[in-house]
Amino acid sequence: MSFEELSHTADVKIRARAETLEALFTDAFLALMQVVYGTDRCDGIIKEIRIESDNIESLLCDFLSEVLFISEVEGLVFSRAGIAIENLHLTAVLHGEFFDPLRHSSGTEVKGISYSGLIIHKDANGYMLDILFDV
Amino acid sequence: MIDSVRQTGVNEWEVPVGYVPGMRVPGKFFLSESLGISLESGAIEQLANVATLPGIIRHSLAMPDIHWGYGFPIGGVAAFSLDEGVISPGGVGFDINCGVRLLTTPLAQKDISGRRDLIEELFRAVPTGVGGKSTLRISPPDLERMMIKGASWAVDAGYGVKRDLIRCEDSGYMKQADCHAVSSKAKQRGVPQGGTLGSGNHFLEMQVVTEIFDPEAAQAFGLHLGQICCMIHCGSRGLGHQVCTDHLKLLESATKKYHIVIPDRQLACAPITSVEGKDYFGAMASSANYAWANRQLITHTVRQVLAKMFRIEYEDMPLVYDVAHNVAKIEEHEVDGKRMNVCVHRKGATRAFGPDTDELPLDLKKIGQPVIIPGSMGTSSFVLRGTKTAMEKTFGSTCHGAGRIMSRTQAKKSLSGKEITANLLKAGIIVRAHSENAIADEAPEVYKSSDEVVNVVHEAGISRLVARLSPLGVIKG
User: Fold this and answer.
1) B230 forms bridges with which residues in the sheet?
2) Residues of chain B positioned with their CB less than 8 A from the CB of A134
3) Which domain holds residue B302?
4) pLDDT at B445 over 90
5) CATH of the domain at B122
6) Of the partner residues A37, A72, A108, the one whose CB lies closest to the CB of residue B200
7) Domains in chain B, number
8) Contact, B316 vs B323, CB < 8 A?
9) How far apart are alpha carbons B9 and B468 in whole angstroms?
10) Is residue B361 part of a domain?
């Protein structure tokens, strides 16, 4: 896991670095869960989702938006994910538990995943991501 | 102030065409020299980007609470021609019809000062924070009615009184709502969240009127010195967030389909007259109506708590007004000497219609529209009134709040929730939230001074100060 929260006036800005695209998406997913629900999150329930998009930025935004949706309507808080990406098709197996107000109330709701300032960059060291969560 | 921006009046600045390539009109923003110190160049670039959109009329505008958003800056206002213009979710925001309302009471400060039991009771009665679920049973047909009729659905269902509706912008609903354009995902999110406050900067605050600037307007709005009021700040919850997410994707394709060149992906848009544009407008209006109904439901809960605790009548807590600050509307304005309908986007900006505007209720026609400006936690909130100058310069718009100047990361480093709560308590303000983080995120220090922001709009004449309200107790999400 390798992500950090950068300073941003209005929203939450996350920077992540990873060797593979799958690891980068996993970091973004973990950052999202941490922002909304805090750090005390466990396993137990498994949920699989599939996403298809036109480009890699949309694939990430669509994936995270879907996670937000499932999390909210099914009352699930996720702690880890197994992600596979092939030709702009993503399959994610999410592990989590039911929302517990006593343990999961230290975060803030994310209203949306922003395209503004979204950068997915690849160089010799791997991938780098900057992404904003609208809060 | 930022290079190449020039002053054109009191607290009034122009961003010339050419600041970014493709600008069709200049940018204009309202700011004092001292607030200019915290102005981000990124926000001015966003203001200039909006000026490149097709059909924009006169100026791309920003209010003094301007800061970096996405697509439009927060505090951004832009009007578009209905024939040639576009509509963009980036000009409305994820929290459609995030807004604020002010409720008066017959109580005085001595009745509620130090009453932690009141704040605890409100915190118990109004669901707040991450995962907050409605205690009301809203059925899917109720949800449809919320989206079509907004606050009037809530009043008809017994959650308010008829008079509340004439004290809401647009009488608490936009007639262009189209539920068919709202996805089933958005509807699923909407059902359990009716009557919930949410988190982030949303709050419910008990306040006291501590200063009257304009006695005639204050009287017309039902406000007097020493009076206890309740301010409610929230929006369309997950339903509105999902509508924005869904339609951003649809409008991104539409941007390409209609060959619209945009400098920033978050300005995805479609012609107002296109199928995609109309669908977004219908879904956005449905979300706006949901938000009005939501604030009405919370109002009902607050009235019940106050009525029971203080033995006062439900009907003795009239609404001053309810304003939307993230919305796009079709409104009639004067353009080049002619009255015409335009599509006004307000993203973190408040409608501030001046006297003699048709939309105002009869008893407010002479005074102008009440404008409710929430302060940050622990600082003053304000009531202002709309002006003719706003109609001429800003399509009847003004600021919406204090505007952040410090990031959440900085806030958490410099201030702990415990310290902030203790400091506020010393100042006589009780704060209740689910977590200390929520308090640290929204500490008074992270915002511009609300006094300074409202002084800018007052001096620029785009709204005029009526009353100051000081906080006594606040519940946060």
Assistant:
1) B103, B206
2) 70, 93-94
3) 6-81+100-405+447-476
4) no
5) 3.90.1860.10
6) A108
7) 1
8) no
9) 26
10) yes
Amino acid at B337: G
Query: Under an 8 A CB cutoff, do B266 and A114 touch?
Result: yes
Give the CA dihedral B388, B390, B393, B395, nearest 10 degrees.
-110
Interfacial B residues in 26-55 facing A (CB < 8 Å): 40
CATH number of the A3-134 domain? 3.55.10.10
pLDDT tens sequence across A5-32: 998 887 899 999 999 999 999 999 999 9
Q: Is residue B467 part of a domain?
A: yes
Structure tokens at A3: 């992500």
Q: What is the ipTM of this complex?
A: 0.93
The pLDDT of residue B413 is 79
Asked if A62 is an interface residue toward chain B (Cβ–Cβ < 8 A), one would say yes
Please judge whether A37 and B130 are an interchain contact, meaning their C-beta atoms are less than 8 angstroms apart: yes
Record: contact B404-A10, CB cut-off 8 A: yes
Say if the Cβ atoms of B74 and A10 lie within 8 Å. yes
Q: For residues B364 and B350, what is the distance between their CA atoms, to the nearest angstrom?
A: 17
Identify whether B93 is part of a domain. no
Note the pLDDT tens digit of each residue in B146-184.
Answer: 999 999 999 999 999 999 999 999 999 999 999 999 999
> DSSP 3-state assignment of B341?
strand
Alpha-carbon gap, residue B415 to B409, rounded angstroms = 10
* Interchain contact B95–A (C-beta under 8 A): yes
B400 assigned to active site: yes
In a domain, residue B439? The reply is no
Q: Kindly report, residue by residue over B31-41, the tens digit of the pLDDT.
A: 999 999 889 89
Nearest to B130 among A11, A104, A117 (CB): A104
